[in-house]
Amino acid sequence: MLPLVLIALNYFLFTIAQTYNEDLTALVSLTKTWQWQNKPSNWEGPDPCDDGWDGIKCSKSRVTSIILTGLDIKGQLSEQIGLLSELQILDLSHNKGLTGPLPNSIGNLTKLSNLFLDGCGFNGRIPDEIGYLKELVFLALNSNNFSGRIPASIGNLSKLNWLDITDNQLEGPIPISNGSTPGLDMLLNTKHFHFGKNKLSGPIPAQLFSTEMTLIHLLFEYNEFDGNIPSTLGLVQSLEVVSLDGNLLSGHVPLNISNLTNLNELYLSNNKLSGSLPNLQGMNLLIYLDMSNNSFVESDFPGWISTLDNLSTLKMENTGLQGQIPDSLFNLSKLKNVILKDNRINGSLDIGDTYSKQLQVIDLQNNRIENFKQHDMVPSSIKIKLVHNPVCEESGVARSYCSNPEPSVPPTTTKNCEYAACSSGQVFSAHCKCSYPYTGTLRFRTPSFFDWGNETSLQERLMHIFQYCNLPVDSVSLSHRDNYPYLGFTLQIFPSNRDYFNQPEILRICSALSNLTMDAFYFYPDEYQHYGESTESSKSSDVGIIIRAAVGGGSALLVLLLIAGGYALWLKKNAAKAIQQSCPFGSGDSRDRSSSIPQLKGARRFSFEEVKKYTNNFSQDNDIGSGGYGKVYRGILPNGQLIAIKRAQKESMQGGFQFKAEVELLSRVHHKNLVSLLGFCFERGEQILVYEYISNGTLKDAIGKSVIIRLDWTRRLKIALDIARGLDYLHQHANPPIIHRDIKSGNILLDQRLNAKVADFGLSKMVDFEKDHVTTEVKGTMGYLDPEYYTSEQLTEKSDVYSYGVLMLELITAKRPIERGNYIVKVVRKEIDKTKDLYGLEKIVDPTIGARSTLKGFEMFVDLAIKCVEDSRADRPTMNDVVKEIENLLFSAGLNSNESTSSSYDENKIYITFGIYKRRGFLFARLVTGVLVIRGSEPWLISLDPG
């Protein structure tokens, strides 16, 4: 009976709906397959067009626009999307939970002009069918997990203005047309090529560029392009920004690059470019020039630089410059930043009497400057850095320019509101009104897109956009977040007339920021949890449809609808019951509902019975480790995914605190170099954490007595970089920031490809970095503990830096921090002799690290480690600085900082399947996949993945 009722009801709804049937089918399919926390409250009527569903726009009963940005949608994009044949705009940006492949049916949307899927979680290949969208003007697929090659079919999109595939896993060469095969060289009307932060490789094809192109922005940074910069690049005279930094480009810079007279910004840093410095005379619109860290031949300071009248920032670190800097350089009226460290510049620094009034930084560290003429007359607003120059090596010198102050950070632009306080969760606006702001991160595509002195103008520009869109925004504020690789700011948008935004307003704000054609930044929104009345307690959409249909259909179907309505209410009641059972705050014994229950953001709650099942009742065969907190078991989910289950011991005195800390922290942080928390169990007096399974154990074991894993120098460098990136994320990107407080080799796990992940957050602290420190009881592991924290009980992010420095020394020596009464930091400091190869540390270097000739960048790595373990935290670098230095080290050593740690051995892999284990006196065979690497005559078992 019930199926007949539902069929009849479905038929009735389709007959009264104003929306075209296929469009309605597509929308219903989408809503059925998605799970979302913030589903628009008016998606209850049966007719998306007639009822005006938020985010849906129609024309003549056809859906023409879907804009559902930043609503925390989870699931996949249904193949039914292809039914929306009149769709012109599809914007699902900033829904990280949207995963899986992009369906091939996307190619049916032949009237689509705008496709925005940036900031989602799509993976797999970009379908070739994307080339069927001949009306496409904007294509934004950036910040997903797309892999494979760029589809050559994109070359068919003759109307395309904007192509953004930044920050994915795309690889291989750039496709070029060949006979009947299309390629990107056919995109003559495209103004924006944004391809940064992928794994694209091979030479940049000369055929890509021509005089007919109208390209404005060419952003190819942080890929794996090699070979020469093609001379045909000089043909595209419309170019305004060229970013090729962070690749493997070599050879001479083409002479005709100076033909690009409209160029505002040129980024060539961190490549292998050689020959003479290019002569850029005549490029008078150039604002930002960075050619740092290349292999140019040594040359005197080029005079043509002083002719670039609009130059604001000059970065030429480690480019072989020598001789004296002409004082005419500082006469450039718009000059702000001069970064020329790590060269051989000598003579006197003379900035003259008519230097630029906008000058902010002159960084000449590690040069040969012997004198600074104006040292008593330069205003304090100009930061001069002459560390490691002869002028600073005289005895008794105590000039400010001979020390390295902590980098200054631009202040927040919010006003200081005195004599008032906001309620919990609210923030002061620029007009000193308390409200719940909508927040997110602005990431600028290149450094020059934002100027430290320009906060006000950017705020005004944003406010102009909001006013133009008729959005109820009172004010905005910006605060600095981080610098690398893309400059980032936290944006707060404050509502006017009330203390919250409603959901339609959030949709429009997010859409306005996501779809900006100003080409300055990416916007990454945070989840908004303070919606007003318009989004509270949404009713079941099924019930809403039934009520609407009953009103429109008369009494003939009343009984039928009542039956269906009763069934829907029954479903709703059971769904509510199921939700209550899965909610970590609303089930279990009352004794479990205490203040120690963690505040979660997305972690799943497992029942104790489920955990027992996944671990075969915590069998000894699945016991993979133990510690002060408890035991760790291997488990397997019904879908075959391996997991690690950490079960607290009953007698663990700090178990409750560590449980709460670890779940709260790990449920809010997500980074490839942090161990992912999948869920937890908090019932029957148990405290259990469920993690992703990391197959190769701890770094402590790997650099100890392991015969299965062998870490050479390259691997150790990349492991160090992985750890640094994880910590940098905790310090700079987590909200609020987090200090780990227990960095050690036993808390670093290595995955299948020997990528490092930071684990064990039981001692971590969330902090407010606007304060200098957090006063707290000293916790951590002896040998790794920051001495300044130990004596003062004042915890800062530099405490993690110190522990990390000890870990770096452990990577070099394979010795424990305290071994036979010797402290590794003191041992290394005592043994260092910088006049010798490897700083004279051969006798304490781990012999399995590799031959001396392979230890490229060893001395730089030691120098960085010693900086990290300085006794005073003020003398230590930040983790962001550490990341940059190790990346530069890898580049200078000819290594790629973004490739997997095991990829250098791909040529000699042998894939094997085997496995025997013993249980209760019997031998069992088990399928295990792995990688066996043959290096020389020695077989190394790199990884095992139990199936």
Summarize the structure.
This protein is about 20% helix and about 25% strand. The chain is of the alpha/beta class and about 950 residues long. Among the domains are: about 425-530, 2-Layer Sandwich (Alpha-Beta Plaits), CATH 3.30.70.330; about 595-690, Phosphorylase Kinase, domain 1 (2-Layer Sandwich), CATH 3.30.200.20; about 700-900, Transferase(Phosphotransferase), domain 1 (Orthogonal Bundle); about 905-945, no CATH class.
Task: Write up this protein.
This protein is an alpha/beta fold and 947 residues long. Among the domains are: 427-532, Alpha-Beta Plaits, CATH 3.30.70.330; 594-692, Phosphorylase Kinase, domain 1 (2-Layer Sandwich); 699-901, Transferase(Phosphotransferase) domain 1 (Transferase(Phosphotransferase), domain 1, Orthogonal Bundle), CATH 1.10.510; 905-946, no CATH class. The protein is built from 15 helices and 54 strands. A 15-stranded mixed sheet has the order 2-3-5-7-9-11-13-15-17-19-21-23-25-27-29. Helix 1 (2-16) packs across helix 5, helix 5 runs antiparallel to helix 6 and helix 12 (797-813) runs antiparallel to helix 14 (858-868). The protein is globular, with a radius of gyration of 30 Å. The model is unreliable at 1-17, 408-415, 449-453, 533-599 and 901-947 (pLDDT under 50). Its main location: membrane. Keywords: ATP-binding, Glycoprotein, Kinase, Leucine-rich repeat, Membrane, Nucleotide-binding, Receptor, Repeat, Serine/threonine-protein kinase, Signal, Transferase, Transmembrane, Transmembrane helix. Residues 1-17 form the signal peptide.
